[in-house]
Write the structure tokens for this entry.
Amino acid sequence: MSTHALILLGVALAAGADAGEHLLAGARHFREGRYTEALVEFRVAERMGDPDARPYAGATLVKLGRPEEALEAFGTGAAAGGDALIAYYQALACYDARLYLCADALLAGVGERSGPRVAAEAARLRADIARTLRAEPSTAAVDFYLARCQALGGERRPAAAAAFCREAAGLSARRRDGYRRDDARKLLAGLTARAEAAEARP
């Protein structure tokens, strides 16, 4: 059964439960490594109006190896009001999607706030990112991120698309010639407005 079908089934069965119960059930599944079940519970809680469910769905999508969907779930705002562990999972979504500037910025804010194990992993990832970004970005890299931005925007995934546009703009700014910086900024302005409107919808 597809995840979408499971979510619909969960919503149908949720008539007697509140969103908080689904959020707790999702957290239990997540801790026990049952990520598909956790995602269903978090999505049901989200559809029932729990604003906390969305970033947890994002973290679960990271665990399921679906980073672009995770980016959409995390949205455009700050990571769950400053929650260091959610920021870490958002950084992993960026890293897995090859959005290294995005990942580095989020990991810089994680620091020691989430415990020594996560802090050590964040430091390791930041060192890896620094090596990756040492050279001036190529025009092909900027083109790749802009193309992915446009494709995701066409798929009506504005938060993920905006993340790719921000990466393109950031890479362009690291080039002496500012290759396609204006293209990235123009696309990003439109996508950010669309993403914020999508997040505001119930």
About this structure: Residues 181-200 form the longest helix (20 residues). Confidence is low (pLDDT under 50) at residues 4-16. Residues 139-200 form one domain.
